[in-house]
Design the sequence.
C-alpha cells in the first residue's frame, strides 16, 4: 500500500460539544508501515513537544452524531484512521491535543491569536454545483404537481450514484477559513520580469490553497510553455514534508509564506530532475528560472496588497453577507433534522461570530439555502433524485419491494416501500396490523401511510410505508393493495385503525375477510366530543368495559357505563360492540386495542416530515435500520426462552397465582379459586373461563396456578409469537 499524506490540526482544544476548535494546520507523510509509536514521535518532533512533560492525545472526526470523535490510541486505531484518510484526506483530520498550551513558531502576539481564532470560526466553503432540474409545473402545494424525469430511461438510471448520502449526515469540509489575504498574478510578458511584474495584481482568486490557516503570504504565477522535464510544470500531487504542506506549483496557487514557496520549489526540482536559479528576490517579490538557457520555465510570486480603505470605514451591513453565504455559515447547525433553528437564531449567530447585521429575510433565505444544501437540493430536485435513490435502495437491500407510481404526465402520485427485513419478519409477528396516516410538512405537503405491528417484545415492528397526495378512498385502497400483495392474506388477520371513513372503505374492499377493529382511544375521544358533560364518567367506565375478556364481566360493566352516560348505549351499539371490545371480537387481538404504535412512529418522525421526499425516505430507512440492528443485538444476548416483556408478565402472574387454590376435577380440568370467584381451566382445550388464556395465547393467572400444582410447563403453553427463537 502506498504512503499516505494526512492533515493535522494542532494547537487547538476539544470543547464540551466534542468539537475541535482553534489551532493550526500541518501535513505529514506517513509510510505504509508506520506504527503508532512512530507517529507520536513524528508529531512530537514537529510540534517540539516533550511527551514526558505534556500529555498528547490524538483523535479524528468520524462524521457521525452518536460518536463525533474517535481516539487513535494504538496500532489498530491508527490503521482504522488511515483507512478513513485514504478515502478523503481533507475530511478526516488528525486532531492533536496537547495538555498544556504550546507555541510552535516562537512568540505570537495576543492580537494574532485573537485574529486567528476569529477566522477559524468564520469558515465559508464553496458551494457545490447542482445540475439543473425541471421546475414544477405550477406552484400549488400538491405533491402531484412534480414533474419527474423519465423513470425507466437507462441513461438516467446509470447516472444515479449507487450510494446516496444521508441528509442528517451530509459531507462538509472541516471549519477552516479560506484565506483572503493573497491573490494570483496573471501571466505577463517577458519584459515584466525586471520588476514591473510586481505591479500586476489579479483581482479574482482562482484556486485558493484549501484548508490553510490565514497567514499573509505570497502568490504564485508560472509559465507553462515548457520545463526541464517535458511539458510538465509542477510536482506530482502528494509530495509532502514533515514541516509543512507542499504540492503542485501552478498559477493561482497560494502559499503561507515565502519560505514555504521556496521549499516547495526545491522539492519540485529534485522530483522532476532539473535545477533552477533565483533570478530576482525581494522581501515581497521573487522570480526563479530554469538554469538551462533554452528552457522557458519560470515562477513569479508577489505578496498581496493590503487594504487601503480608512480604518474607520467599517459598515455594519456587509454586501458579502448574501443569503447563500449565510447558509454556508450556519449549515453545520442544521445537520440534525430534529433541531429547531429559527431565522432569529441566524441573526444572532451572524452578529456574534462576524459582527454583521443582516435582515430577517436574508436570515430566512440563508437558512433555506442551508437546508437545500444539506437535503440534496430543493424539493423539486429531490423529486428528480427519487427514482435513482429507489433504484439504489433495491440494489443494496435485496428482497425489498418499492413501487413508484406516476401519472400519464409523469407526475408523482404514490410511493410504496417495504424493506426485506420487514417482509421476512412479519411471519413471526402476531397477525395484528395497525394502520394510520399523517400529514407531511414539506413544501408540497402530502400524506404518509404506515402499517405497523408488534414484535415478540411488544416493540414497534414497521411493515410498510407509503406516500400520497392526500388521504382518500383511492390512496388508502392503493396502499392496502400493495400491503396485501407483499405480505399476503392471513385467515386470522386483524387490522386496527381509527374510524376514518376512507380507511373503513379501503379495508372492506382490499381485506374483506379480515376483522377490522377500532382503536379504543380514538373512539373514546369521539365519545368525549359527543358527550361533553360526561367525560369523567366515560374515562371511569369505558376503558374497563373495552378491555375486559369475560362476557359476563362485560355486561356488568357496559350496564354501568350506559347508566352513567345516557345515550352512549345506542352510539356504541351502532359502532359495533365487536369492533372496540376484547370480549366480542371474532378474532384474536392479542390485547392490541389501540394504534399507539402508529402514533408513536408519527411522533418520532415529527421533524423528519419537514424534509423533501428523498431525504425523508432515507431518514425512514436509517430509522428502520437502527431499530432492526438494536433489537437483533438484544435478541442475540437474551438468555431466556421468551422475550423480556413476556418473561416479566409471566413472573408477575406467577406471584399472583401463588395465592390461588386449585381443585382437580379430572386429568385435564381444574377449578381455580381466585378470591370470591371460581374459574375453570381446561388444559386439553387450552381454555380458561376468564378467556384471557385463549384470546392472548399466553397463560393467565389461573393457568399458572394449575401449572404450579401439575407437571405442565408454562413455556409450553405460550404461543410461538412470544418466543425468542421463533
Sequence:
Amino acid at each position: 500500500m502506498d504512503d499516505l499524506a494526512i492533515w493535522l490540526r494542532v494547537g487547538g482544544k476539544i470543547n464540551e460539544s466534542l468539537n475541535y476548535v482553534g489551532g493550526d494546520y500541518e501535513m505529514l507523510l506517513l509510510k505504509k508501515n508506520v506504527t503508532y509509536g512512530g507517529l507520536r514521535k513524528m508529531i512530537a518532533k514537529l510540534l517540539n513537544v516533550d511527551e514526558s512533560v505534556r500529555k498528547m492525545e490524538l483523535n479524528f472526526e468520524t462524521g457521525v452524531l452518536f460518536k463525533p470523535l474517535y481516539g487513535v490510541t494504538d496500532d489498530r486505531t491508527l490503521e482504522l484512521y488511515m483507512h478513513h484518510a485514504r478515502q478523503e484526506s481533507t475530511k478526516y483530520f488528525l486532531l492533536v491535543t496537547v495538555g498544556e498550551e504550546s507555541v510552535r513558531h516562537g512568540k505570537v502576539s495576543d492580537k494574532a491569536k485573537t485574529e486567528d481564532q476569529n477566522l477559524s470560526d468564520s469558515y465559508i466553503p464553496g458551494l457545490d454545483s447542482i445540475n439543473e432540474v425541471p421546475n414544477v409545473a405550477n406552484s400549488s402545494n400538491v405533491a402531484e404537481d412534480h414533474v419527474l424525469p423519465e423513470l425507466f430511461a437507462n441513461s438516467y438510471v446509470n447516472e444515479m450514484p449507487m450510494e446516496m448520502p444521508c441528509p442528517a449526515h451530509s459531507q462538509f469540509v472541516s471549519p477552516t477559513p479560506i484565506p483572503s489575504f493573497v491573490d494570483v498574478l496573471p501571466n505577463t510578458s517577458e519584459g515584466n520580469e525586471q520588476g514591473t511584474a510586481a505591479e500586476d495584481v489579479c483581482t479574482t482568486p482562482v484556486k485558493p490553497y484549501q484548508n490553510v490557516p490565514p497567514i499573509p503570504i505570497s502568490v504564485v504565477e508560472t509559465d507553462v510553455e515548457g520545463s526541464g522535464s517535458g511539458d510538465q510544470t509542477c510536482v506530482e500531487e502528494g509530495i509532502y514534508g514533515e514541516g509543512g504542506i507542499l504540492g503542485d506549483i501552478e498559477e493561482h496557487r497560494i502559499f503561507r509564506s515565502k519560505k514555504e514557496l521556496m521549499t516547495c520549489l526545491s522539492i519540485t526540482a529534485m522530483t522532476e530532475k532539473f535545477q533552477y536559479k533565483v533570478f530576482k528576490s525581494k522581501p515581497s517579490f521573487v522570480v526563479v528560472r530554469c538554469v538551462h538557457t533554452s528552457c522557458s520555465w519560470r515562477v513569479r510570486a508577489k505578496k498581496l496588497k493590503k487594504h487601503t480603505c480608512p480604518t474607520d470605514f467599517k459598515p455594519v451591513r456587509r454586501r458579502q453577507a448574501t443569503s447563500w453565504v449565510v447558509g454556508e455559515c450556519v449549515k453545520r447547525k442544521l445537520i440534525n433534522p430534529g433541531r429547531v433553528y429559527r431565522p432569529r437564531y441566524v441573526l444572532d449567530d451572524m452578529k456574534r461570530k462576524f459582527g454583521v447585521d443582516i435582515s430577517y429575510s436574508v436570515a430566512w433565505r440563508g437558512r433555506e439555502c442551508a437546508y437545500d444544501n444539506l437535503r440534496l437540493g430543493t424539493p423539486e430536485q429531490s423529486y428528480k433524485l427519487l427514482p435513482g435513490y429507489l433504484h439504489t435502495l433495491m440494489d443494496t437491500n435485496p428482497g425489498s419491494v418499492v413501487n413508484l407510481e406516476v401519472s400519464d404526465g409523469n407526475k408523482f402520485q404514490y410511493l410504496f416501500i417495504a424493506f426485506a427485513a420487514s417482509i421476512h419478519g412479519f411471519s413471526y409477528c402476531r397477525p395484528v396490523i395497525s394502520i394510520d396516516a399523517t400529514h407531511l410538512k414539506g413544501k408540497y405537503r402530502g400524506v404518509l401511510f404506515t402499517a405497523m405491528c408488534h414484535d415478540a417484545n411488544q416493540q414497534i415492528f414497521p411493515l410498510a410505508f407509503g406516500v400520497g397526495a392526500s388521504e382518500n378512498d383511492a390512496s388508502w385502497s392503493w396502499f392496502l393493495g400493495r400491503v396485501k400483495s407483499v405480505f399476503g392474506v392471513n385467515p386470522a388477520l386483524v387490522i386496527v385503525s381509527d374510524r376514518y371513513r376512507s380507511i373503513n372503505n379501503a379495508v372492506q374492499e382490499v381485506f374483506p375477510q379480515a376483522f377490522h377493529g377500532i382503536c379504543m382511544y380514538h373512539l373514546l375521544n369521539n365519545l368525549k366530543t359527543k358527550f361533553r358533560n360526561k367525560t369523567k364518567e366515560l374515562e371511569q367506565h369505558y376503558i374497563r368495559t373495552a378491555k375486559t375478556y369475560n362476557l359476563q364481566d362485560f355486561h356488568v360493566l357496559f350496564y354501568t357505563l350506559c347508566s352513567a352516560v345516557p345515550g352512549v348505549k345506542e352510539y356504541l351499539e351502532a359502532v359495533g360492540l365487536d369492533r372496540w371490545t376484547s370480549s366480542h371480537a371474532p378474532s384474536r387481538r392479542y390485547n392490541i386495542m389501540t394504534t399507539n404504535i402508529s402514533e408513536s412512529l408519527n411522533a418520532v418522525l415529527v421533524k423528519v416530515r419537514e424534509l423533501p421526499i428523498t431525504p425523508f425516505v432515507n431518514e425512514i430507512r436509517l430509522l428502520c435500520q437502527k431499530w432492526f440492528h438494536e433489537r437483533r443485538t438484544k435478541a442475540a444476548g437474551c438468555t431466556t426462552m421468551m422475550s423480556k416483556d413476556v418473561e416479566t408478565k409471566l413472573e408477575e402472574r406467577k406471584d399472583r397465582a401463588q395465592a390461588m387454590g386449585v381443585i382437580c376435577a379430572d386429568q385435564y380440568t381444574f377449578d381455580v379459586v381466585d378470591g370470591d370467584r371460581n374459574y375453570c381451566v381446561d388444559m386439553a382445550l387450552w381454555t380458561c373461563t376468564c378467556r384471557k388464556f385463549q384470546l392472548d395465547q399466553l397463560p393467565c393467572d389461573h393457568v399458572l396456578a394449575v401449572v404450579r400444582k401439575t407437571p405442565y410447563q408454562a413455556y409450553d403453553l405460550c404461543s410461538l409469537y412470544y418466543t425468542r427463537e421463533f
